[in-house]
Design a protein that fits this description.
Shape: elongated
Strand order of the largest sheet: 1-2
Order of helices and strands: HHEEHHH
Mean pLDDT: 84
Number of strands: 2
Structural class: mainly alpha
CATH topology: Multidrug-efflux Transporter Regulator, Chain: A, Domain 2
CATH architecture: Orthogonal Bundle
Number of helices: 5
CATH class: Mainly Alpha
Distance between the termini: 62 Å
Largest sheet: 2 strands, antiparallel
Length: about 140
């Protein structure tokens, strides 16, 4: 299938598919005329790439584990691919650390906001960014 067909099948733009190829995540064959030819398995691979991106993995990390992904229907931990498990654990730890740092930042902001004049307006503390300035 051609790049337009893959884009249509997956809902991913041609430009993004070319980026995935640049990153080594997809490896289409090249026809004599230079056109990319994708296999049916590339549809599942694009969906797996999208799932891993949604899980917070970078394309660099995905590039180290994408060879482990073979299941057509579902993204799952493959047997005999310890790289995949190790990378997922490292990424989960990184995300957990980021969440902790963000929660610390929120606590600091909450403490500062607790010292702000109230004027009956608590929308800042509650995360409402649509508040109107006090008259």
């Amino acid at each position: 299938m051609r790049i337009g067909d893959l884009a249509h099948e997956t809902g991913v733009s041609r430009r993004l598919l070319r980026y995935y190829e640049e990153q080594g995540l997809l490896r289409p064959t090249r026809l004599d005329n230079g056109y990319r030819e994708y296999a049916e398995a590339d549809v599942a691979m694009v969906r797996h790439i999208r799932a891993m991106l949604a899980a917070g993995l970078s394309t660099a990390v995905i590039g180290t584990v994408v060879h482990c992904v073979r299941d057509k229907d579902e993204l799952r931990v493959p047997p005999g691919c310890p790289t995949f498990i190790g990378e997922l654990r490292r990424e989960r730890a990184r995300i957990t650390e980021t969440i902790s740092q963000l929660e610390g930042s929120r606590r600091i902001l909450d403490a500062v906001l607790d010292t702000a004049p109230r004027n009956g307006d608590t929308s800042l503390r509650n995360g409402d960014t649509s508040r109107k300035p006090a008259p």
